[in-house]
Amino acid sequence: MSTFTTRIALPRRTFLRGLGATLALPLLDAMVPALAAEAKTAAKPVRRLGYLFMPMGADMTRWTPTGGDKLEELPFILESLAPVKDHVSIVSNLEIRNAYPGTHATSNASFLSCARAKHTESTDYFLGTTVDQMAAQQLGRETQLPSLELAMDMMQTVGQCDNGYACVYQNNLSWSSPTTPLPAEAHPRIVFEMLFGEGGSKAQRQAALRKRASLLDFVKDDISRLQRELGAADRERVGHYLESVRDVERRIQRAEQGLAENPLPDLDRPTGVPASYAEHARLMFELQLLAMQGDITRVFTFQLARETSNRTYPESGVSDPHHPLSHHGNDPEKIARMAKINRFHVSLFAEFLQKLRATPEAGGTLLDNSLFLYGSGMGNPNVHDHVNLPIIVAGGAAGGMKGGRHIRYKEPTPLANLHLTLLDKAGVRLEKFQDSTAQVDGLFAPLGI
Amino acid sequence: MKSLAHFSIALLAASALGQESLRPLVEQHCIDCHDSDTAKGKLNLAALLAEDVTKHPAVWENVVRRMATRQMPPASRKERPTEAEYAATVAALAGRLDAEAAAHPQPGRTETLRRLNRAEYQNAMRDLLAVEVDATALLPPDEASHGFDNMSVGTLPPTLLDRYISAAQKISRLAVGAAQRVPGGETIRIKPDITQQERAEGLPFGTRGGAAIPFTFPQDGEYEVQLRLTRDRNDVVEGLHGPHDVLVLLDRAQMKTFTVRPPGGKGHDLVDAHLKFRLPVKAGRRELGVTFLKDSASLLDDKRQPYEARFNFHRHPRPAPALYQVSITGPFDATGPGDAASRRRIFIAQPQSPADEVACAKKILAPLLRRAWRRPVTDADVARVLPLFEEGRKEGGFDAGIESALSAVLVSREFLFRVEAQPAEAKPGAVYRVSDVALASRLSFFLWSSIPDDELLALAERGELSQPTVLEAQARRLLADPRAQQSLVANFAGQWLHLRNLDGITPDGRLFPDFDDNLRQSMRRETELLFDEILRENRSVLALLKSDHTFLNERLAKHYGIPHIYGERFRRVALGPETQRGGLLRHASVLMATSYATRTAPTIRGKWILENLIGTPPQPPAPDVPSLDEGVVSEKLPVRQRLAAHRDQAACATCHEFIDPPGFALEHFDAVGRWRSLEAGVPVDASGGLPDGSRFTGADALETGLLQRPEIFATTLAEKLLAYALGRAIEPHDAPAVRHIVRRSQAQDFRFSEFVTALVTSVPFTMRQSL
After folding, report:
1. What distance in Å separates the CA atoms of residue B728 and residue B154, rounded to the nearest whole number?
2. DSSP assignment letter at B631
3. Stretch 125-184 of chain A: residues touching chain B, C-beta under 8 Å
4. What is the pLDDT of residues B673-701, one digit of tens each?
5. pTM of the prediction?
6. What 3-state class would DSSP assign to B675?
7. Tens digit of each residue's pLDDT (9 = 90 or more) over B119-157
8. Which of A65, A134, B129, B471 is the most exposed place for a label (fewest CB within 10 A)?
9. ipTM over 0.95
10. Is A206 at the interface with chain B, CB within 8 A?
């Protein structure tokens, strides 16, 4: 089967056209001024960061590579990574202390925040700013969208979120502040429109942006009035609304700039949502690739499915829904089936990495200038633990990423250490992130300053 | 009636005695565990008895709840209060708390700024502009809190604002019927697990499968429609063993007929390539039907197959072709905006000359603004959107001007948000009546999930709505409108009863091979129709728990083993006891929504009952409860024994003793809600109980147990309804209002409309507290 989404909403020609046009254009540094500036510095930070969340842990016996520090034989779940083995490393024995007591809500919420979720079902939820958003403050300053939050679940459930935890914890990977979960989008057409508007020619896209800008001016004036009408208690909230207005304003300005600078050709919008999970996921990856090509955003989060998802993955050869299977009760047959689902999720990521490696941009390929963290906030889903998490780091040469390694901690080590390390590579220097104790050694070559 | 009598005793007790009347009972039955030494559940009643009850309403409301449901003192105690003592104590306590609430009303505080959720946004478009949109394709999903998605609606992150802007532009363009820059397109997928062997809803008799697709055509013009048939993994069209006729209908009139044939040796690539055509369509909401002619060949084939579900390539393949997707692209050669309902709604005036345009725009915009902003509007208000009209007009003429102004209306704060600002002069903590205009919105968003209509708004503008008789009359009027049935069924019942979750549940294909989406939707429909009947006919809500009839179509009747029900249409069916069907607890929808994919889950069913029927949700597990390694319990054991192993652990037992028994009583119903007398060859053990300590076997006894004190269920429903109506969590200070609602409804046989009228005239619905 073709890895491109040929029969679905985003027609193949759109993608090929996009790719073709980029390939055809000379890769002049002038087109990517930001990169050109960075390239002159000695320690070149990575250009973009991506975080992929896989729900409900994995079968760690079929995940963890055997052998030494070098990644040799890939275990069952990771086999599909073979073609890009040199670009991936496995980090074993990471944990999230703040995710306890073990729940699905905290598995999702703590994955990128490493923070303890306030135990509440109300609107007074409180978590922590997630690493992608910290990265977005740095990497996102230049781009139309500071970050892009994607997911795969179109519907929300009721009463099925973990007991005592507001659904926001289970649904949102990305939080721009401890009280601001960022909604993720699963509809390909809507993602497309966030990135490219309604598509069309350059002139049409420009005209559409002008209309948006004038509508936004109206909103700004309208909400500012509210500021004057309300009491002090509610004014703070209105202040947040105004920040959002400014943010969208900036997006429109960046998009206008981007239109002038970026070589993306005419684009067609995808229409519906593909019925099969795999087709849908591939389309979502395709859109991320397009966003990278157009330099529309540099920070990505993608939730491959929600915790407690009862989705089935017939493409994996397993007909059982994921969540019940993850409570396998140590039944070897069930574990084997769950491992097939884990393997299937990883294979989609592997496909994506291959496509990124095949897409050139200034200074190498898309993969070269990117770093990805793929994993779960849970280790063994049968008991809801948050130790020995399944974690992959992938990326290219830009940050000095040394692929093909297996870093195995003897003692449980905070996932926050890895977050700290990746942020550092993206140029976000922090002393400490949540419960971090150090950076992860051995993942990157020492910077040649 | 009994508890009504108790209530009057309560009033007497409250006024005469105060909490001193509590002391003997508390000392005799409660203090052993709830004194300063033991303080079980961190509750020390000994200390509290020294103070007035009204000083600690949260604690005492909890005592009321635990005693009213007979959960405390626990059944394990040797000596418990008599029924009379229970009733008198509950009544005395509640009476004291109610009297305090009457003297010092505490309405709580709905948030000042609440944006419309997706359902409300979609309905508002329908009522404001006569345009049908699918908000799920325009806006991000809403977050649920306390079981409802109209509570966490205070924030406006950039992405959401961005989407509101896009949605406003799209909808205004659609509503005005503006020319599209490029032909638009939509691809509609049919769910892969729908069996297409029988007639689908909205399609003619004599057809099978396919779908009736509602679609808003933006302009008069030609539209291209392309059909694709379902293929298996090998790219072979499923079920194509002979010729089949494909029919295309527009608003039920037949437009096209095609024949598809097996390719005869060649690949299937081109088998459905000719199912592509252009169709002239008038602008507006139309229904495009695509279906197959039902022929005897596919019927014959059916007879040999044991299953109703026919979509699975390996297990039970489709015997005849099925529709996979429909793509609609257009308009091509558009001839204009046509005469869509939305244009008739918007363009109530047409300019006679260019000089007339601004005046005409004002005429159009003023009533639009009034409905959108749910308040009287002034010239100054209209002036705020006029610059956008001018801007649009300059570029594209009068219609474009209206479109541009309309898009501004749709992103304005007063449309997107329900703003309930407090009066400028209100002192902190002061309690005040919400304005009539705000009340109109509270009422319409509660009952319609939408904006007020003209009559409601006019009453509010005249300041008459807050009169209790007017308010109740309006509540009854809104309730009688089909919009109330639609929104309360979909948004209230759909969330309260977890029906919304059904789409996310797929039972294990090997254990339940005869499951398909047709069955899933039929399950949901049964429960919706029972709830709908209670609304429409203003029946007692207790009919949800016990009913001598239900609503079935052939698919669901077969699932239940009830004979002689034919066809896709749902109808009311009287039930004998042998059918084992009736109230909610016997609905496959509820039973499946509370099961795992492979087996029943008594714990989940128990939790569902405690939360949604009894109103005492189990506490979240304490942080120090160890995770149970399921590996210690063999998978091969029946569920009951596995759970028994859980309860052997002291840390788990306290809660599971309380949660599991109601679920166990439903063990006769399997994970997809079928009746069973054996589980894995062993007779089903449906012995269960209720948190009041009663022990019994089976669903009958569970229903009887729940109906023994109907005010418990009524209290839960009233709380859920109040939380949904206010868009906020229920607090202890709401309990007196909830009791008020329950008392009024009880006096009217628990009829649904009494819940609503009592609710909308209650303190929390009509008042608010300032900060």
Report:
1. 11
2. G
3. 149, 154-161, 163-168, 171, 176, 180-184
4. 999 999 888 899 999 999 999 999 999 99
5. 0.82
6. strand
7. 999 999 999 999 999 998 889 888 888 889 998 888 898
8. A65
9. no
10. no
